[in-house]
From TrEMBL:
<feature type="transmembrane region" description="Helical">
    <location>
        <begin position="89"/>
        <end position="107"/>
    </location>
</feature>
<keyword id="KW-0472">Membrane</keyword>
<protein>
    <recommendedName>
        <fullName>DUF2975 domain-containing protein</fullName>
    </recommendedName>
</protein>
<keyword id="KW-0812">Transmembrane</keyword>
<feature type="transmembrane region" description="Helical">
    <location>
        <begin position="59"/>
        <end position="77"/>
    </location>
</feature>
<keyword id="KW-1133">Transmembrane helix</keyword>
<feature type="transmembrane region" description="Helical">
    <location>
        <begin position="119"/>
        <end position="139"/>
    </location>
</feature>
<feature type="transmembrane region" description="Helical">
    <location>
        <begin position="30"/>
        <end position="53"/>
    </location>
</feature>
Length: 153
């Protein structure tokens, strides 16, 4: 929810040119302050391509990432560990980690210059995707064994 709320606040602040945004004309940078304060909250370049391709989509993607992550953690809190729903959540999570960061990186590279940090973050998401892929494979085998055991009893 925090990422989604941050997305909405940044969108309203940038599009509404509210009092919470300070533009630095010399550097084409912006500062979004925390509501009702002068404490800097978000910093970025005041460039429409940067704002709509790099800055704002990251908040939505990370909101989506944490929703999927909560589903994955929910898999481990169920009474029955190996379920079709749990396997489905793991599969969606690793597919999202394999595809979405790479798509965002290529889109960013096409429209602007991605920083070195972006490559590292994408690498971390790919490693996380590989780990969850193996976990999903284990879950698939556990689900198969559990279904066979349910047929016996």
């Amino acid at each position: 929810m925090i990422y989604f709320i941050t997305f909405v606040y940044a969108l309203i602040s940038l599009e509404g040119k509210s009092a919470s945004v300070l533009l630095h004309d010399a550097n084409s940078q912006f500062i979004i302050y925390l509501p009702f304060t002068h404490i800097p909250f978000l910093l970025g370049f005041y460039n429409p391509i940067y704002i709509w391709v790099e800055f704002l989509p990251l908040f939505i993607l990370y909101a989506f990432f944490f929703v999927l992550l909560s589903y994955v953690f929910g898999v481990f809190t169920q009474e029955r560990l190996f379920t079709h729903r749990g396997y489905h959540y793991l599969r969606v999570f690793y597919l999202a980690n394999f595809t979405l960061p790479v798509i965002m990186l290529f889109l960013t590279e096409l429209l602007s210059e991605a920083s070195f940090d972006a490559w590292g973050i994408v690498g971390l998401h790919l490693l996380l995707g590989i780990f969850i892929f193996f976990m999903a494979a284990i879950f698939k085998q556990g689900l198969k064994l559990q279904d066979e055991q349910d047929l016996i009893f």
